[in-house]
Amino acid sequence: MPPPPWHPDNIAGRLAHLEARGRITKAVRAWFDQQGFLEVETPCLQASPGMEPHLKAFQTTLSEPFGETSSRMYLHTSPEFAMKKLLAAGLPCIYQLAHCFRNEERSPTHHPEFTMLEWYRSGMGLDALMEDCEGLVKAALLASGHKTLSWQGKHCDPFAPWQRLTVSDAFFDFAGIDLLGTITDPDEPDPRPLAEAAGRIGLSTQATDSWEDVFFRLFLDRIEPHLGSNAPVFLTGYPLCMAALSRQDAVDSRLAMRFELYAAGLELANAFAELTDSKEQRRRFERDQKLKEQLYGERYPIDEDFLAALSHMPECSGIALGFDRLVMLATQATSIDQVLWLPLRH
User: What confidence score (pLDDT) does residue 346 get?
Assistant: First the structure.
């Protein structure tokens, strides 16, 4: 049996990564201070944990003194709902290093408790967040003591020119598939045309696969390994059915105003031009929870307070970056456990 995470030998083997984590944390806070951001802290305990269909949350019970009342609560999967309430209160530029919790997630890049770096800019769009990412990642790498971001033998230089690539171009370039041509209904696309395209390039699918299932089979097998292989890349123009909490693209109604950041084949961040239409957001939440119930036999409650705040939120953009993953890439770690002070044991 391997020694526990607190064992001196175990700590010693991770100490260089952990010391670099401390330097990167200081560099990140200094960078946001220089940009005029306000650091906030929001509760981990929430009425609704996050509404993505495949996320599994940790549930608990909040009891008032003397057992008068109790209510079901969750550890948040992201600080997004709470931070947007602060945007509705009038705070213009905020960030948070938040501990987040997702059940049934453990791999070299996933841990049940992890740190999310999330920030928002009122009155600004996705281009501003892209500029933020460049400055922030460079500051983190300089603090790490290394020269490149590295993962599984791939190296990525954030001081080289950063790239932008649309999702549709990525599918055509790396898989030879006209992704948008397979979408007949932007809101709920039929999976069969995309599954047929996958079959033509030798990738098998299941008859029960949804459109997103087929998308991710293709993406993980044929697209993701190529992303950010030399310099970081912003993957833009996600299909509307994958909009989550982002606005619909004003130019192409088939798309959402969203990007993801990739480096050395690993996803680092996910950004939205934030949706402020509470009716549309409720529709998406209800659709996602219907799917969650079909797949997993459960659904999470909608945070009505969040929807009320959404109507008062200004136009803004927001982004969530996996802080542990950034430390991994900057320190050339091979597993997320190497950059956590006390990873959870199985």
Answer: 66
Q: Distance between CA 270 and CA 256 in Å, rounded?
A: 13
Evaluate if residue 185 carries a pLDDT over 90. Answer: no
We find that the CATH architecture of domain 8-162+231-339 is 2-Layer Sandwich (3.30)
Read off the amino acid at residue 119. W
Long-range CB contacts for residues 152-158, cutoff 8 Å, separation at least 24: 152/264, 152/265, 152/334, 154/228, 154/229, 154/264, 154/265, 155/230, 155/264, 156/228, 156/229, 156/230, 156/231, 156/232, 156/263, 156/264, 156/329, 157/230, 157/231, 158/134, 158/231, 158/232, 158/263
- pLDDT grade for 65, boundaries at 50, 70 and 90: confident
| Per-residue confidence (pLDDT) for residue 345, from 0 to 100 | 82
Mind listing the pLDDT tens digit for each residue in 322-335?
Answer: 999 999 999 999 99
pLDDT exceeds 80 at position 340 = yes
